[in-house]
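WARN retry 2 of 3 for item q-0093 after timeout on previous attempt; input resubmitted unchanged.
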Amino acid sequence: MMWFNKSAQIENNTIANTLTELGTNGVNLSLDELMRYQSKSSLINIKAVRNLQGKMSGNYLARSKGRGMEFDEVRHYQTGDDIRAIDWRVTARTGTTHTKLFREEIERPVQIITDLSHSMLFGSKLLFKSVQAAHIAALLAWHAKSKGDRVGGIVFNQALHTELKPRSRQQGVLHYLNALIKVHKDSFMKQQSEHQNTNSDLYFEENCLRARQIALPGSLVYFITDGHNINNEAIRHLANISKHCELVMCLLSDPLEHELPECKSQLNVSITDGKNRQQLTLGDNRTAEFYRYKAELYNKEIAQALTKAGARLMHFSAGCSIENQLKDGVASWTR
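OK item q-0093 returned
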């Protein structure tokens, strides 16, 4: 459930205004709030930064050299070079044979993998992590569409898996947005009915495997999750994705997952992650310090494992709008 302490209530007006601006109640998803990001696509700039191995034509320049649409550089002629690419002007000027090199245009499908499992149905300040995840996915999808890219991927929770083949134009984006809404609603209904018998770690692992299977070499893969269900097998699948694709892990967290809220007097509260319930004492310095230490240790371990697997990491909070986080430089999408 959305949980507010006394100090957070002071910010109610600001929070209410932000929710109104975002067109959301912070808990449920609607198509209108995801359509809003069509006008925000300029907030990010997706560029290829790794060698691409696809062989299809498209809108991104590969680091590999070959015959293509975009001139790259001139160098000394080497045995085996295409004689049609000889630069006769440079050759005449220098007295040695030079050849032109080109960067080949490679198609760069954008695969967005969005985790909407039970651990994502939590928020203490502004939005559920699941809602913020959908907003990030929508922003990515609209940006890809604005660049003429095909959008596809996977939307999943602890029991439902929706796979979307990359499509171009607005049809591909709308197909993905509707999948977000459908799976999110399913997650919420299952949480409300307390049908949570599925092994979330195993299901997360299976979706990592499927993402590995559908990601064509050279794809740009965004994986949006809180990382709570990542295990060693999932890391292995992600490492395999990063060998042939550019993998970016968008790690979502809530402010309460980093530190406990301040409290002038000690107060015993009950908290839950959707599966387990625990008692905590607010206003106790030792408890707050230990909580912060354990949170930092956990986040560090997850980050190290993902970095070792070859993923780039971007951290987002569910306690602040995406626009503000990008404008404040919390997460930079320009590469």
